[in-house]
């Protein structure tokens, strides 16, 4: 079986003044088509460095990264950049404030030559509607949108390329809890609808439960656990994972019942 993404003994070494730092240390893992793999760990655990290597921002110092069975070069070609897209943590900083929303969404269509030029404005409207925004938001500026709306635009921009793999780097951490839940629901809906594959980088284990199929736990650059989400939360293998789980805020049974009741009402009214 060919995995969509495979990392084989991958390390990233940064040279400092008098020593080297292994930000990622001999990591091997596979991501299957259509799944969501969450990558979790504390700050400095290597999560973002791993994401940057998958995206081609950093080449691996050691090891190989393969996509659909092909080893990716250190310098990615345009087709590779189209196939693997990024949704960043802060959508305001990732969107050009001088461009309208429509111009930001049209840019990847123009760069990759997707669709007829005369139909790209219509495609921008379709992308906005797909992420739950009106098509006429194309004329707005990023500053005029809320945080949740801007993140929807960032997701739409990643979808514009018809990519196979989306790397989501802390995509909900800058959002309040209610908006976070709506964005997670959108991501789940889009994954089912489009058959997308996600690598979901986060430090928030409470988010992981709602989106991930498997969880990769990183500690100081090393992969210490890789298991289905249910097992990670019910019977984690590694002591570090148990410490992370133990730090997740606990809610009462009454709060869980109330949350489920409110979510049902939200889904009915949505």
Automatic annotation (TrEMBL):
Keywords: ATP-binding, Nucleotide-binding, Transport. The keyword Nucleotide-binding applies. Residues 5-245 form the ABC transporter domain. It holds the Pfam family ABC_tran. It comes from the Bacteria. GO terms for biological process: transmembrane transport. GO terms for molecular function: ATP binding; ATP hydrolysis activity. Belongs to the ABC transporter superfamily. PANTHER family: TRANSPORT ATP-BINDING PROTEIN (PTHR43776). This is ABC transporter ATP-binding protein. It comes from Allomesorhizobium camelthorni.
